[in-house]
Write a structure and sequence with these properties.
By secondary structure, the chain is mainly α. The chain has helices spanning 14-34, 48-52, 54-83, 101-124, 131-148, 153-205. The chain is extended, with a radius of gyration of 63 Å. The termini are far apart.
Length: 206
């Protein structure tokens, strides 16, 4: 078999060359199998405290213990009610107590007295503004304006009143003329109908 082997490089003994090449190849395969990757592709490490979550389990256990205690108390109450006739426990004889209740009452009375005194001063105080004086000043200013202006207000008002009266009179006259025209139109139509009726009667007789 070593005689059929063809080495890459020239050699003196094919048998020895075949053994050496096989040894190198086996060593090469071992090195390949023992080689370590440059990139870590293995699965991440598993930590027990992240999966177990003891704190959450403790909270759940506490919640269940509270529920169990409430259920036990409720069961005891229901059994007591079933054994006896049952009683009403809605009476509350407790009286509210306060360490500074009297002090707060005194403070409230003092504030009410001060507010009442302020209200009395406000209601009894005289006004500082004199409306009558304002009115007199305004009348005086109106007189000054009437003396200074070119077209007094009274004349303008009288002129506007005359214009309104003239418009009312013209509107009344226009209405009267419209009524007269309508009446004349109705009368003329009646006369024409009567004439037509008379002409038709004469034609039938002939």
């Amino acid at each position: 078999m070593h005689q059929a082997y063809q080495p890459i490089l020239p050699c003196g003994n094919k048998y020895l060359q075949l053994k050496w090449d096989k040894a190198k190849y086996e060593e090469h395969k071992k090195r390949i199998q023992a080689a370590k990757p440059l990139v870590d592709t293995s699965a991440p490490a598993i930590y027990s405290h992240l999966h177990l979550k003891l704190g959450k389990l403790k909270l759940e256990e506490d919640r269940l213990s509270v529920i169990e205690r409430d259920n036990r108390l409720l069961l005891e109450k229901m059994s007591c009610i079933m054994r006896t006739k049952g009683q009403i426990d809605n009476k509350n004889d407790y009286k509210a107590k306060s360490l500074n209740g009297e002090k707060r009452k005194q403070e409230l009375r003092r504030v009410n007295q001060e507010n009442r005194a302020i209200l009395d001063r406000i209601t009894k105080s005289q006004p500082q503004y004199q409306v009558q004086r304002w009115h007199e000043d305004w009348q005086r200013a109106e007189k000054y304006m009437a003396n200074v202006v070119r077209y007094p207000r009274g004349r303008r008002k009288s002129q506007s009143r005359k214009e309104e009266q003239f418009k009312k009179q013209t509107s009344k006259q226009d209405r009267k003329t419209e009524k007269q025209l309508k009446l004349e139109g109705v009368k003329s139509k009646r006369k024409e109908k009567e004439r037509d009726h008379v002409h038709h009667g004469k034609g039938k007789k002939n």
